[in-house]
Structure formats: C-alpha cells, structure tokens
Design brief:
heterodimer; A: alpha+beta; Peroxisomal Thiolase, Chain A, domain 1; eight-stranded mixed sheet; about 20% strand; B: alpha/beta; eleven-stranded mixed sheet; three-stranded mixed sheet; 12 helices; 20 strands
Chain lengths: ~260, ~425
C-alpha cells in the first residue's frame, strides 16, 4: 500500500499515576511521577451523577478524548470518532454472565445497555453533542493499529479531522484468568489532514513483520493492560523517536513513521 | 464516492441457508419466527416467553477440527453462512487476483461469541488450591471470550491477510462494515474485502432486551399501531467487495454509505429521528442520487414502539410517496449485529430479482406511517437503487445505498 499520512493535532493520555499526556511525557523522559494523581478519571463531558456511575472504561475513554480535543483546539462536536478497545468493559461482561448463571431475569437494564462495545462511543457522542459518525472496533492485539488505520482512511475519504481513542480496563471474576487485563488505560489522538503547524506528522503502512518486543517506559509500566499494544506509539511520541511498530495481527505490523517538529 | 463492486453475497437466517431460501420465504410471506426454545430459563423452568428467529441445525454443525480453537455457536453460524452461494470461491478469486494481503476482513457483531462465556459461567469448575473458580476445560480458549472472536475466525477460515477488524456498534455493526471496507478500498489500502456480520441468540440479549422491556411476547409487528416490541433472531451473512476496474463488469455495487450519531440517549432513538435522517441523506449524497431514485428501502423497523414511528416520520419527510419501504424483521426477527448484512442482502435481492417484501404480522399502520411504508409484497423488476437502514444502541446509525447500474459519472471518468 502507499503510505497514509496525517497530522497529530492533539494527544490525550490517562493511566493510574499518569493522569495527562504531560505527565506521561515527563515519566517517559525523566522517570518522574506526579504527586497528586487521581485514582479515577473524571470526564467533564458527563453530568456529575453520570460521571460517578459511568463504567471506568467509559470514563477513561471520555477523559482522554476531551483532552485530545482541547489540545487540538477542536470542538468535540465536530469530529467523527473511532473507539478502539480489545475487550470493551470486562467487569460488565463478568456481571452479565454471572447474573445469567444465577438469576437471568435480574439483569440490570442500564448495565445491559452499557455492555455494548460502543458504550464509550455512545456516551461520547451524547456528552459532546456530536452527531458525526462514531465507530467501535476490536481486533484483539491489533485493535489499536486497525483503529489508527480506520481513522486515517476516514481522513482519506474526506473528513478534515478524526478522533481516535484506545482504551481497556481491568478484568474481573473468573474471566480475569482467560481475558487478563489490569489497570485502566486510555489514550487519544486528534488526527487531521491539514498540514502540520508544530505537530508531529504520521505516515503509516502495513507490512509483514513483528512489533517491538521490548517497549519503552510507558509500555513497560502498563504492560498488563490489554491496550498496552498502543503504547509503542505513545512512547515514541513522548521521547521523539521517529519509528513505532504496532501489532497488526498474525505476522503483520503497522509501521508508523513519525516526523517530529 | 467511488462505487465498489459486489462480487458475491449471502445470508443464513431463520428462513434458511443462502439467498434462495431468503428470496423464497420473502416472496411466499413465510416467516421464520418460533416460540422461544432457547436460552436460560426463568422461574418455572421455562425459557423467556417470546418468539425468536432461530437458525436450524447449528447444534449439529461443529466446526472442522482445524478450527477447533474458535468453536462456539457464533463461529459455527459464521462457517455455515460462509459456505453458501459461492462466497468462499469468490474470496479465493480475490486472494488469487490481488494477493491475500490485499483483501480485508471487516465483520460486524453485537455480542460476538459471548454465548460461550455465558456457558463457561454456567459451568464454572472449582479451582484446586484456592477458593476461586475457573472455566471448564473445553471453554478455556481466550479467543472465543473477546469481541474479535468473529473476525479472527473468519480470517483464519479464509486465509486472508489484509486488515482484519470486528466492528461492534450494536445493531448497526454489519452495515458499517460496508462503509469501512469501501474506505479501505478507495484509500488504496486493499483491493477487495470480505464484509459481513454474525450474531447468535444468547442469554445476554434475550434477558437484556427483556430488562429494557423491549421484547414482544408475540411475533413482532413492525410499524403496526399495536406493536409492543421486538422479536430477537440470529443470522450470519457476508458479501465480497472489490474495487471497480475497466476489465470486469460490476452489475451490483455499493453506491453510497451514510453514518451518523443521535447524540441523544444510549438506548432510545432521537425523538425527531435527526440521526437517522442525517445517515440517509449522507448515503444518498455519497451515491450522488436523489431520494426519488431509490426503488426499495429496507427499514430498521424493529417493532419497538419508539423506533418505528420515528423512522417512519423521517422517511415521510425525505422520500416521495412512490417509495416501497418495509421492515423484514417479521420474517427473521431482529438479528442485531447481523441485521446490517441480512437486510443489505434483502436490498440486493430487490435489485437482482425484483423481490420487494412488505411487512409480516402487521395489519394496522401506525399513524406516523406515510404512504412509503408498505405491508404487502410487490414484484418490480429493473430497480436501480435500493437502500438499507441499520440503527443501534448508543444512537449509532448507518444507511447504505446499493446500485444495479452504473450511473455515477465518477466511474466513467
């Protein structure tokens, strides 16, 4: 394929202990951690009662999405969005399956509609007032690479800018051994087809090959999270590396070249 | 947009396996719903009292040994659906023409194989040495307990090596796969794509929709004034898409797609149908046609009280009275993440064979229904364009336009 290009206009990042992209950069470059990191994201797009009730995966996705939009100076309502998560919300899957095994007609209607893989996308579009298209995908350990590819072909199809969000949360119950994932991790990019003005440029192509085996500081810190697969790109962005290799599934790799400014 | 050729298509539903079974049942107005005989039981040891569109024979059709890792009801249905109507041969032709790494797999599902996870929880085993419990050995296979179970299985079953994605936007999933595949083809990432969707009946959706009070105790009645809710179904279907070139004719095409969000509520549609209308207008615009050019519109038409009146009003605002629009969920049930592909196949059958279904089980039109909503079947040859609407939880909307002739000047150029 001929490479696809994009400008990164904004980055959002949240994991326990590193609640912003700036904190992630400081950690990747100097190994420092902020003193007062909150235990839970607090996405400002949701009404206060929904902010408390929202599943953690939704909260982290909305937190980083808004941060990326603010960094890009773009109104959240104007952007089509791609939400990439390997498992969705494993605690809700655990709840649904455990409840069905004991009292099937006791399923909570709210937890059922929160169980859809596009729950974060739905809450985002509602909170942002975004009537733009939103999608939600999974591709196992290639989820983020396929999400990045989808965001970039949306630009190629004529959208001026696209929001990409990658996230996964912790696993729960008997599912935890089969679908292990720990912590709470989210990152977002606002990508645009406009020429960069002080922002990194991306060029991506699909190739045969393998992703980086040993990750950088961010990848190592959150390696137990299912979305750690995206961290080679964020490590590279944080420390100014020019190349990141992302798993693209079964012997394939997404080669991401980064032009820093 | 540049249209994309449709080289093969098929669906397997409660109406049977393959397009012949679908076309015959639609034409004969022979529905596929039955009294629920599936899923966890409630008090009194009975299944949830409702009607379902169940595919016969899945229990007797295990996956070939080579695919044992992916064994589950959902992937069994995917495999059944893939074997109909020359799909695998069309996939092989794409791989040989373009190279397997130049053919994408983009498939949609709502719950993927969560039925296998439900089974694992129903059969949890004590774990030696601690007080936790573990999955039974035959379900100790991580790939069937994650949403990409479907995409990963289809990729292995076909040997394709292009981008492989599972789209999971609830009930719009396997409509959106057409849009994503068209983007991948038109951006030059691939030359062809296998798209589709599979969802199987499971406890999560039966009891989840029941908790939302959206399940009808009787066969669903789309667009009927007395409708009370949906009937759930299961289905699988696929289509093979390819970039149009000068060498081969492309009698059937994906001409346009439109996607939008309601930005309103997680499980209730926008009261004015703003998102639905936006998706339809966007699809028409991308196809470069007027609403009057559409000969058949397969509606989302779930038979829930909210969806149908809102969708009918949006259709009445946009389309001339001559449009034939219908919901086929009285035949198949609401097949959730497979609804997009199943009803796209029905739209393609309208173009290819002139089968325009009406609506099953319904008698009295909802007051919101305009003259476009048709309860009776008609046969009409020579249609140029047919559309399909699929709307999902999270306010996720997708509308597709299929074309039977080359009318787009962008192709001629």
């Amino acid at each position: 394929m001929s490479p696809l290009g994009a400008t990164i206009e904004g980055i959002g990042f949240w994991t326990r202990g590193l609640p912003s992209w700036q904190a992630a950069c400081d950690y990747a470059v100097r190994g420092t951690l902020p003193d007062d990191a909150p235990a839970r994201p607090s996405p400002q797009l949701l009404a206060p009662n929904e902010r408390r009730r929202a599943p953690e995966t939704v909260a982290v996705a909305l937190e980083v999405a808004l941060a990326a939009c603010r960094a890009a100076g773009r109104a959240p309502s104007t952007l089509p969005s791609v939400f990439a998560s390997m498992h969705g919300d494993l605690t809700i899957t655990d709840y649904m399956c455990a409840t069905l095994a004991t009292q099937a007609d006791g399923i909570s209607p709210t937890r059922f509609h929160n169980s859809v893989h596009n729950a974060a996308a739905g809450y985002w579009t509602i909170g942002a007032g975004a009537m733009q298209p939103a999608t939600a995908i999974s591709a196992y350990d290639a989820t983020f690479a396929q999400g990045l590819l989808e965001a970039m072909v949306q630009l190629a199809a004529g959208h001026e800018a696209v929001l990409l969000v990658g996230y996964d949360g912790g696993s729960a119950g008997p599912l935890a051994r089969i679908s292990p994932s720990e912590g709470l991790l989210g990152a977002a990019l606002v990508l645009s087809s406009a020429p960069g003005d002080g922002w990194p440029q991306l060029r991506v192509s699909l190739d045969d090959g393998a992703a980086d085996a040993v990750g950088g500081a961010l990848a190592q810190r959150d390696q137990a999270n299912a979305m750690a697969q995206m961290l080679p790109l964020f490590d590279a962005l944080a420390i100014g590396q020019r190349l990141a290799l992302l798993k693209a599934g079964h012997g394939r790799v997404l080669t991401v070249e980064i032009g820093h400014v | 947009m540049l249209p994309v050729a449709i080289r093969a298509f098929s669906a397997t539903t409660a109406l049977g396996r393959g397009v012949e079974a679908q076309a015959n049942a639609l034409a004969a107005r022979r529905g596929g719903l039955r009294r629920n005989d599936f899923g966890p039981c409630i008090a009194g040891d009975v299944p949830l009292p409702c009607w379902i569109g169940r595919v016969d024979g899945i229990e007797d059709a295990p996956l070939p040994q080579a695919f044992a890792r992916w064994e589950c009801r959902n992937n069994r249905l995917a495999w059944l659906a893939l074997q109909a109507d020359g799909l695998l041969e069309a996939v092989a032709a794409m791989a040989s023409r373009h190279g397997s790494e130049r053919v994408a797999v983009v498939v949609g599902t709502s719950t993927s194989s969560i039925g296998a996870t439900e089974d694992a929880y129903a059969g949890l085993q004590p774990d030696d040495g601690n007080d936790r419990s573990r999955f039974p050995d035959d379900l100790d296979r991580p790939i069937v307990h994650t949403p990409h179970s479907l995409g990963d299985f289809v990729q292995h079953a076909t040997g394709l090596r292009g981008p492989c994605i599972t789209v999971a936007t609830a009930c719009s999933s396997s409509a959106k796969v057409f849009a994503q595949a068209a983007r991948l083809i038109n951006a030059g990432v691939v030359d062809a794509a296998l798209v589709g969707g599979v969802d199987t009946l499971c406890g999560s959706v039966l009891f989840g929709f029941n908790a939302l009070q959206l399940v009808s105790p009787d066969p669903c009645q789309p667009f009927d004034a007395a409708r009370v809710g949906l009937s759930l179904g299961e289905a699988g279907g696929f289509a093979v898409l390819e970039r149009i070139d000068d060498e081969r004719e492309a009698p059937l095409r994906l001409s346009g797609y439109g996607e939008s969000s309601d930005a309103h509520h997680m499980s209730a549609p926008h009261p004015q149908g703003a998102g639905a209308e936006s998706a339809m207008r966007d699809a028409l615009a991308r196809a470069g046609i007027d609403a009057a050019d559409v000969g058949y519109l397969n509606l989302h038409g779930t038979a829930t009280p909210a969806n149908d009146s809102i969708e009918a009003a949006a259709v009445a605002r946009m389309f001339p009275a001559g449009l034939h629009a219908s919901s086929t969920k009285g035949w198949t049930g609401h097949t959730l993440g497979a609804a997009g592909i199943v009803e796209s196949v029905f739209a393609l059958l309208a173009l290819q064979r002139g089968v325009l279904p009406g609506i099953l089980n319904s008698a009295t039109p909802d007051p919101a229904c305009g003259p476009q909503i048709r309860f009776d079947n008609v046969h009409r040859d020579g249609l140029r364009y047919a559309m399909n609407n699929s709307f999902g939880f999270g306010g996720n909307n997708c509308s597709l336009v299929f074309g039977a002739v080359c009318e787009n000047p962008a192709v001629a150029a």
